[in-house]
Design a protein that fits this description.
The complex is a heterodimer. Chain A is 48% helix and 17% strand. Chain A is built from 5 helices and 5 strands. Chain A has helices at residues 18-29, 43-53, 67-80, 96-104, 117-135; strands at 5-9, 33-36, 57-62, 87-92, 110-111. A 5-stranded parallel sheet of chain A has the order 2-1-3-4-5, sandwiched between helices. In chain A, strand 4, helix 4 (96-104) and strand 5 form a beta-alpha-beta unit. Chain A starts with a strand and ends with a helix. Chain B is α/β, with parallel strands linked by helices. Chain B has 2 domains: 6-89, no CATH class; 106-491, Alpha-Beta Barrel (TIM Barrel). Chain B has helices spanning 36-52, 86-90, 106-109, 123-135, 147-151, 174-180, 198-214, 230-234, 245-262, 273-279, 283-303, 308-311, 325-346, 352-355, 375-389, 409-425, 439-461, 465-470, 473-491, 520-533, 536-552, 556-565, 570-581; strands at 6-11, 22-29, 113-114, 117-118, 141-144, 191-194, 224-226, 266-267, 269-272, 315-321, 359-363, 394-396. A 5-stranded parallel sheet of chain B has the order 3-12-11-10-9. A 5-stranded parallel sheet of chain B has the order 4-5-6-7-8, with helices on one face. A two-stranded antiparallel ribbon of chain B has the order 1-2. In chain B, helix 7 (198-214) crosses helix 22 (556-565), helix 11 (283-303) packs parallel to helix 13 (325-346) and helix 13 packs parallel to helix 15. The termini of chain B are far apart. The chains are: A alpha/beta, B alpha/beta. At the A-B interface, helix 1 of A face helix 5 and helix 19 of B.
Chain lengths: 136, 589
């Protein structure tokens, strides 16, 4: 069975990358293919990478508070490039009301501090396998 | 048991290339703290207790070890520290080996500096928070800078748009520095500038100095600290467009050299163990990496012609105050004794101030939770207590909303009050190094010291800290440790109240979250005005001077301090440096 391919990215100038690296390893350990972009990614670069690498999900890690601006940009660019079916999820210091707002933009789950990496793995497996099934 | 009549003192053999210590027997009559017969009697009684009392009851199902993996025994007795020679190994505060404290009076003379971090939005807003904290009893300024500033970008740089004012205050030009410290008596109040990366420090510290001079304050009198740690740029938060390790290291040493000459009361570097720890490493790695970094800086400065006692008194350290209470205390003490030995034996330092490791502690942010945030007040209080029992010179307590947002006024105030309660109500400050002599703490200190020194030897074997960064070794160590930490939380091996135990489902947050004020437009308007008003001739001259200095491998802080007076922006300085030195393709993991 084809492995799930996920892109994990740190957009903006936020330098807190401990969490995203831990998630990257956890997804790898769970059998997924992970492309980790590193820091200082611009939304356009993230979407371009997603397109080129053919990923099924993009995880954005934002601990700077810049999440509203950045998620909106990424969602708009995905639409522009015609790959809105890529699941966008994320993590960081993102308050509840902003999480609700992001959901209304089409963003998937947001995993905040204290999340168990198993929950992220299970979420991705569930949402991506469901998509595969609904396509066949 | 053959008891040696002589003290075995670790002593560096001249010409020894590897390792820090070679064991040589120094002919000094051994002065045991404890009588051999007493130790033997204690040992026998302990074995009896273990068999007949302790061993007959059940232990909790748990691995009893410190956070960094050192096994912890049920009880410690004089047997664990039977080899201690009090005068050689412990001594007195303010004297070799400095383990009991860096000053003779410690907190009986003067309390630690209570220095709470502040920084968000435009400088106008942060200035108000600085003033608020100082009015409420904070003893120094502790300034954080926003992500664009930390990376050397201007607020209007296209890459900066989402992050202006986030994580700290936005600083673009000297005008921002003037506003930031407007009405704050920097001639009396010391400022800690959390300019983590040398690429940021070279400009921001220069702006601070230039601003002081504009206020007729002599650099010779200015007190404060800059972080300026090259590992922050090349091993922690590394990004695709960062300075190569050699440039970052050079910038860091340029600033130290500059301050040694012109600002002798300024601490031009604060080896940021706190940040390495936040990125994932253990207490042992934290201490080893800061000391290895300090050794590399010292070697470079000596290569540049300075004498160790010219700069070493102003090298300062920055540690985390993490959750394993006794391990943290032991870490601070072990670090002091190792530094003393390194400075004395390896560098031949004579000035007692070179031999004394001075440090600031920030309580561990990574140990605080987004769940049930008020619990963090208790956590941070314990962290701060260990820092104070460990002899810290200055402390910042993380606010209870650390995992959620930039601190609000209330959470900053609560953190400051926690310091004041600790200082004024607990009386732990009434004697110096109160945990000294504890069988457990001294044993743990000795064990940590050994492990830290072993790791220092390993780094030395690689060619030093700069090489260990270039090869990616240090990145693997840190991210590996971070992954182990997370696994321990997820398995339940490391309980975190509210996260993997005592959770509240569908929790409602009992606190208000901070909103960062609009900053980008304020900074944009300011920059446009400044660019119109400044002399473009002077700006060009300044940028040319920076380029010439790069070509000659001169001291860059000397030219940048002049450049910022012409209102050259931080982004302009950074672009010039990166154009000359290039950027680096760092290891990602």
């Amino acid at each position: 069975m084809r492995k799930i391919r996920i892109l994990l990215a740190k957009p903006g100038l936020d330098g807190h990358d401990r969490g995203v690296k831990v998630v990257a390893r956890a997804l790898c350990d769970a059998g997924m293919e992970v492309i980790y972009s590193g820091l200082h990614q611009e939304p356009a670069m993230i979407v371009e990478t997603a397109l080129q690498e053919g990923v099924e999900g993009i995880g954005l890690s934002i601990l700077s508070g810049a999440h509203n601006t950045i998620f909106s940009k990424v969602m708009a660019l995905l639409k522009e490039k015609g790959i809105s079916d890529v699941v966008v999820f994320g993590g960081g210091t993102i308050p509840q009301k902003d999480r609700d707002r992001l959901k209304s933009l089409g963003v998937g789950e947001i995993f905040t501090p204290g999340t168990n990496t198993e929950d992220i793995v299970n979420y991705l497996k569930k949402v991506l396998e469901t998509r595969k099934e609904s396509k066949t | 048991m053959g008891e040696s009549p002589f003290v075995v003192t670790p002593h560096k053999v001249k010409g020894a290339k590897r390792g820090f210590f070679k064991r040589v027997i120094l002919m000094r009559p051994k002065k045991s703290l404890f009588d051999t017969d007493s130790i033997e009697e204690i040992r026998q009684e302990k074995e009896k207790w273990q068999r007949e009392a302790y061993g007959t009851e059940t232990e909790r199902e748990e691995v009893f070890e410190t956070l960094s993996g050192i096994p912890i025994e049920p009880i410690y007795t004089p047997e664990h520290i039977a080899d201690i020679d009090y005068i050689r190994d412990l001594g007195f505060p303010g004297e070799e080996p400095f383990i009991r404290g860096v000053h003779p009076t410690m907190y009986r003379g003067r309390t630690w500096t209570q220095r709470q971090l502040a920084g968000f939005g435009p400088p106008e807003e942060t200035n108000k928070r600085y003033k608020f904290l100082l009015q409420q009893g904070a003893m120094g300024v502790n300034g954080v800078f926003d992500y664009p500033t930390l990376r050397g970008y201007d607020s209007i740089d296209p890459q900066a748009y989402a992050d202006v004012g986030r994580g700290g205050v936005a600083i673009d030009t000297m005008e921002d520095m003037r506003i930031l410290f407007d009405g704050i008596p920097i001639e009396n109040v010391s400022s800690s500038l959390v300019t983590c990366q040398p690429i940021c420090n070279i400009t921001v510290q220069s702006m601070y100095f230039a601003n002081a001079q504009a206020r007729n304050i002599s650099l010779k009198e200015l007190k404060g600290t800059s972080q300026n740690d090259f590992l922050m740029e090349t091993a922690i938060t590394i990004a695709p467009d960062v300075s190569p390790p050699k440039l970052s290291f050079k910038l860091s040493c340029d600033a130290i050299e500059f301050c040694t000459k012109y600002a002798p009361r300024w601490n031009p570097i604060s080896f940021a163990g706190y940040n390495y720890r936040e990125a994932g490493c253990t207490a042992i790695q934290e201490a080893a990496f800061v000391i290895a970094n300090a050794i590399a800086c010292s070697e470079e400065l000596i290569r540049r012609g300075l004498k160790v006692d010219d700069f070493a008194p102003r090298l300062s350290f920055f540690f985390s105050g993490h959750s394993d209470f006794f391990e943290e205390v032991a870490k601070y003490r072990a670090a002091r004794r190792i530094w003393y030995r390194v400075m004395k034996e390896r560098f031949g330092a004579k000035d007692p101030r070179s031999l004394a490791l001075r440090f600031h502690v920030q309580t561990a942010g990574v140990a605080l939770t987004a769940q049930q945030p008020l619990n963090n007040i208790a956590r941070a209080a314990y962290h701060a207590l260990s820092a104070v029992l460990g002899g810290a010179q200055s402390v910042h307590i993380d606010a209870y909303d650390e995992a959620l947002c930039t601190p609000t006024e209330l959470s900053s105030l609560t953190a400051l009050r926690t310091q004041q309660v600790l200082q004024l109500e607990t009386r732990v400050t009434h004697t110096i190094d109160p945990l000294g002599g504890s069988y457990f703490v001294e044993s743990l200190t000795n064990q940590l010291e050994k492990k830290i020194v072993d790791l220092l030897d390993e780094i030395e074997g690689m060619g030093g800290i700069v090489k260990s960064v270039e090869s990616g070794w240090i990145h693997k160590e840190i991210s590996g440790a971070a992954y182990e930490y997370q696994k321990a939380i997820e398995s339940g091996e490391m309980p975190i109240v509210g996260v993997n135990c005592y959770r509240i489902e569908d929790e409602k947050l009992p606190i208000e979250l901070f909103q960062v004020p609009e900053t980008l437009e304020i900074q944009r308007e300011k920059l446009e005005r400044i660019k119109k008003e400044r002399s473009s001739t002077n700006v060009q001259k300044a940028l040319d001077a920076i380029l010439r200095c790069c070509e000659k491998d001169g001291n860059l802080m000397e030219v940048v301090v002049k450049a910022v007076k012409a209102y050259v922006t931080e982004g302009e300085v950074t672009k010039g440096l990166k154009r000359f030195y290039g950027t680096w393709n760092p290891p990602l993991f």
